[in-house]
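Researcher: Structure prediction, please.
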Amino acid sequence: MTARDTARDTVLGRVHDALGLAPRSPVAVPRDYRRGRTLPDDERLGLFTDRLVDYQAQVHTCTSAETPATLASVLTRLAASRVGFPAGLDPAWLVDWHGEAVEDRADVPAPDLSALDAVVTASAAGCAETGTIFLDGSADQGRRALTLVPDVHVCVVDLSQVAVGVPEALARLVPERPTTLISGPSATSDIELERVEGVHGPRTLIVVVRTDA
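Model: Predicted structure follows.
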């Protein structure tokens, strides 16, 4: 028996002993979160936009009918020539853009996604109070790698999906689905507090909020 095995057995033994001392009856955990908060659409949009901009995301608003033109304008300004999209994305969203639209497939290795100039997805929910966007892996949002590897993520959020606070936003999600939370572009800071973007995900986050949906 090695020293490593001995240490492991010691730790597991202590865990076993501790579990034996734990109460057998379940302990009630209070769940009295604030729920049911609402705001008028214009206030909710203003709060959501303010938080996103504070996180250094770019925000555009449009109506549902203006979605194709808005996305085409965004992608043209990015000078994007190859844009990825999940299989379940509404094809009408990209009809006004004339670059190469690449449908993602599960068998495409994640490193190959770095060849895309950007990715366009929908979203599952949003939180105005924290400026957070939730993705749940649905067909119009795709796998997690698709929104982490490309340098630019263009995410379409319907204002009707944006809740005021975190409890209200979480209530819109299916707990069993894989959930990704996005609060601005990927960023971190070193020991000297120098901000570095694009370390763990897209360097640029562009949010298109559809105000009538």
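Model: The two ends are 64 Å apart (CA to CA).
Researcher: Thanks, that helps.
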